[in-house]
Amino acid sequence: MNALMEQASRARAAWLELQTADSQLKNRALDCIAQALTADREDILEANRRDLDKARQNGMSPAFIERLTLNEERIQKMADGVLQVAGLPDPVGEIMEEWDRPNGLHIQKVRVPLGVIGIIYESRPNVTVDAAALCLKSGNAAILRGGSDAFESNRALMDSLRRALSQAGLNPDCVSLVMDTSRETVNQLMRLNEYVDVLIPRGGKGLIHSVVQNATVPVIQTGDGVCHVYVDGECDQAMAQKVAVSAKVSRPSVCNSAETLLVDSAIAQVFLPKCLEELREKGVEIRGCDRVRAICPWVKPATDQDWDTEYNDLIYSVKVVDGVEAAIDHINRHGTRHSEAILTSNLEHARLFQAKVDAAAVYHNASTRFTDGGEFGFGAEIGISNQKLHARGPMGLRELTTYKYMIGGDGQIR
Amino acid sequence: MNALMEQASRARAAWLELQTADSQLKNRALDCIAQALTADREDILEANRRDLDKARQNGMSPAFIERLTLNEERIQKMADGVLQVAGLPDPVGEIMEEWDRPNGLHIQKVRVPLGVIGIIYESRPNVTVDAAALCLKSGNAAILRGGSDAFESNRALMDSLRRALSQAGLNPDCVSLVMDTSRETVNQLMRLNEYVDVLIPRGGKGLIHSVVQNATVPVIQTGDGVCHVYVDGECDQAMAQKVAVSAKVSRPSVCNSAETLLVDSAIAQVFLPKCLEELREKGVEIRGCDRVRAICPWVKPATDQDWDTEYNDLIYSVKVVDGVEAAIDHINRHGTRHSEAILTSNLEHARLFQAKVDAAAVYHNASTRFTDGGEFGFGAEIGISNQKLHARGPMGLRELTTYKYMIGGDGQIR
Description:
The structure is a homodimer.
Chain A: H1 3-18, H2 23-39, H3 41-57, H4 62-68, H5 72-87, E1 95-100, E2 106-113, E3 116-121, H6 125-137, E4 141-145, H7 151-168, E5 175-177, H8 183-189, E6 198-202, H9 205-214, E7 227-231, H10 237-249, E8 258-264, H11 268-281, E9 285-288, H12 290-295, E10 300-301, E11 315-321, H13 324-334, E12 339-343, H14 347-356, E13 361-366, H15 373-376, E14 383-385, E15 393-395, E16 401-412
């Protein structure tokens, strides 16, 4: 048994206790974590400075440095986030359903934690605290494997977290950090089916793809959003323009922002010049199909690749389609099953679009940007699932649980 | 694009229509399938005879031949099973939850089919019909990859199924058989994430292990049951003996039968001689720990391996443990998270056992053998999941669905 297997085995043992911890104990632990983060901020910032020095020496990009950087305000925000999770309702123990069978057996379907969750993420130290808090509150043990560039920061945060757990009377092995950030070790983590129940990768497309390719432990895929806005021929064009623009420009770097704008040929001649002009004024690069360019000749030509690209940037691919069925067809070919929107005043078109588009969240007359745990009212989220098993869309505390059947009898045999 | 990719792409296209098919149409298709199976029975039996001839030439075991064999009665049973599925309630379209957000968005969580399901199974031709019917009723397309030994039978069954779908007005590509039974092709199926949403392997441990090791498409693991019966110190010993014996002998070949009997040391001296004698009379081979053998010296010694073995046979490993906590600990180390039972009159022990044992179904005073879709009242099942993502325990029609959020607004942006 090597170091990682021992760590995972200890995490499972700690989880077997944690699974039945009551809400009060878990909330006390979260309070202790929030306090510890504030109390230990000097040590955490010093560790972060070591990571930052190394990142600068390695010539990392300003955006990378920005994501890696901690400061007093960010540490306070982490601590506030932990307290917010403490304030959310505990999903564990809910009796989801119960019924009696003719033979007298009474069956209860009870919500329980998933078990040991492996979180694999990049160099954002805030994920360390977020993920630990969400796992803990939902009764799960967490094994965190952060990026090597944030190792010192993560280690300092983890020291703080684990001391807080001990102080609250929980086994500190409920949360731990993988200390060896080599590729071999992360690959081993992905295959520890004996101890790890679920993997949740958080990060870019490359990271998620690598986990899906290598893991034998079940994975919940998150992120990866090629989201579409479809402007139907029958719609309030002013509202459609507002939503189509906002879904791209309000925060282009996130997965729920739109990448492709589809416009019904019935109104393209009128709608496109106004809408694309506003986008251009807001600094968006437009890449259009031939029919778009016939109307707005200044638009750059889109290539086949554009329809499958998540830009995460101020770039918008735009296509003219012949009605709602053609829009649905395009989305089901090129979408990533994340978030899709139709803007229409025709309720039959809206119904058809919502029924036929294969995605976690399908909007009628609203922006795709609302696919978010906070916006859905879940309070917090660990990610947005765009696969179909287990959970779809924003994953809050409830989505970090499973169920178990508890059956009571008086000696029934079969 | 090779033949399998084309098949999978057609299955996805067929599913995009099937996902919104109403219950009446799906039930009509199931009726047509049942009729077609009866009408085509001569062709099916002839194809089956070719498989049986080959199997005999290849020297397959009598048990293998028995599972492979079709006859008029078995075909009628398949057809009856299809009609039974037609009679079950359709889970698709259920509004599971709905709520309003302060910004005026109305969110509905709606039950929808999973999509394209790949079923990988061994040489039991009845799975072809069962799986197709369950997938169809729950609005899923199915790609079936059966064992090569049943290929002729499966092809004849599939011809019959697909003709019936066309006749009912559904796209026959909703159900199809992988025509190339090579290992390369099944490995490709396990990695067709673009077209296949879920894999469900049905069969022995080796098959399931191979799918888990090779798949990048999400897998629902089924089967694999090292199930325990724990007889607590405080219990109705006559009832405990009845359940402990029945859980082993009533049908030892299935995954929900017990493999290990745990007995509290407080009553071992009294309980074991009676119980093990009855088991011996019923032809069960007993393999015991040292403490069991100190009480019943005729018992064979158990090895370490026995505690992790699913015998699927009239063999029972038996161990003396010191109370309920020790029983829980043994089960959480050696169980496969399937079905576990405690026999006790102490409600606190029952509560502790049901809360702490990590399994899909945890029984108090009843046999583990009830973990079954029919016994739970689900009407039918595609398998028993012993992983934690998505579904646990018996998987009926509802467990073959996921959900999608349908959100309505009046121009909300973020």
